[in-house]
TrEMBL record:
CDD domains hit by this protein: ThyX (cd20175)
Catalytic activity: dUMP + (6R)-5,10-methylene-5,6,7,8-tetrahydrofolate + NADPH + H(+) = dTMP + (6S)-5,6,7,8-tetrahydrofolate + NADP(+)
Gene: thyX
Top-rank lineage group of the source organism: Bacteria
Residues involved in dUMP binding: 101-104, 113-117, 185, 212
Protein name per the record: Flavin-dependent thymidylate synthase
Keywords, alphabetical: FAD, Flavoprotein, Methyltransferase, NADP, Nucleotide biosynthesis, Transferase
Upper lineage: Bacteria, Bacillati, Actinomycetota, Actinomycetes, Kitasatosporales
Stored InterPro entries: Thymidylate_synthase_ThyX (IPR003669), Thymidylate_synthase_ThyX_sf (IPR036098)
Organism: Streptomyces himastatinicus ATCC 53653
């Protein structure tokens, strides 16, 4: 009695290989002032309407020492609303963990961040530079950061880069399999770079800088994470060029927002 040959199982189609995009690593941040309507005269105009009514720009600026004195008075005695009549919009590219701290600042700020729901996120990740202090000493509320050893820096860079590559490969694999971007993005770490537009006025920016930068003239000490301080320093540099009298008064009065 002859045996009936068994049916040959159909071959399983080979999986489509996932093309892995090469990750890149940064230790810096990008801050660009993209548009503004901000000048010291905006502060003067807003303040003097209280006592003098509407005035022309020539009238506002014809006495520089008087203008400087008024701005310093407003800052010193914390008359804050005249510092709100201006606007600055920044383009910022930084790690996601920076944005999570940044968006604690809500009053006087508007944000629009790139969306991982609607676009494929690029493999750009944060790795601390050699000048980044790595070691925390002391207890919470009373600690300091000190330089790490060369071995600690090497370990940090290697561990971060390996983790980033693995996470992004998983992200690409899910996208290639048809998984929605809004689901696949969950595997990506907070060291991924994102970008946003942030719009503020001088008063809200001063409050941000008072908390997110360290400065020798600050009356109230602050202990920001270095990466958000890097953003703050670049924003402050741009703002100081637009409103030098206001910036000088901010420093002269302990860097406390009015």
């Amino acid at each position: 009695m002859s045996e009936t040959p068994a049916e040959t199982p159909a071959e399983t189609p080979a999986a489509t290989p996932v093309e892995t995009e090469k990750a890149s690593f940064r230790s810096d941040v990008t801050v660009e002032l993209v548009k503004h309507s901000a000048a010291d005269s905006d502060v003067l105009w807003a303040a003097r309407v209280s006592t003098a009514g509407e005035q022309s720009l020539d009238e506002l600026t014809k006495d520089p020492e008087r203008s400087k004195g008024l701005i310093n008075f407003l800052m010193r005695d914390r008359h804050g609303s005249p510092f709100e009549h201006n606007s600055m919009t920044f383009f910022i590219s930084a790690p996601i963990f920076v944005f999570r701290e940044f968006m604690r600042h809500r009053v006087g700020w508007s944000y629009n961040e790139e969306s991982g729901r609607y676009r494929r996120l690029e493999p750009v990740f944060y790795v601390p530079g050699e000048d980044r202090k790595l070691v925390q000493q002391g207890r919470p509320g009373k600690y300091e950061f000190v330089d790490g050893t060369s071995e600690q820096h090497a370990l940090t860079g290697r561990a971060m880069e390996d983790a980033y590559r693995h996470a992004y490969e998983a992200y690409q694999e899910m996208l290639a399999a048809g998984v929605a971007r809004e689901v696949a993005r969950a595997v990506l770490p907070v060291g991924l770079y994102s970008s946003m537009y942030a719009t503020c006025n001088a008063r809200s920016l001063m409050h941000f800088l008072g908390l997110r930068t360290q400065h020798e003239q600050a009356a109230v000490p602050s202990f920001p994470q270095r990466e958000i301080e890097m953003v703050g320093e670049k924003m402050e540099e741009a703002w100081a060029g637009l409103m030098p009298l206001t910036h000088a008064a901010f420093n002269a009065n302990g860097r406390v927002a009015p």
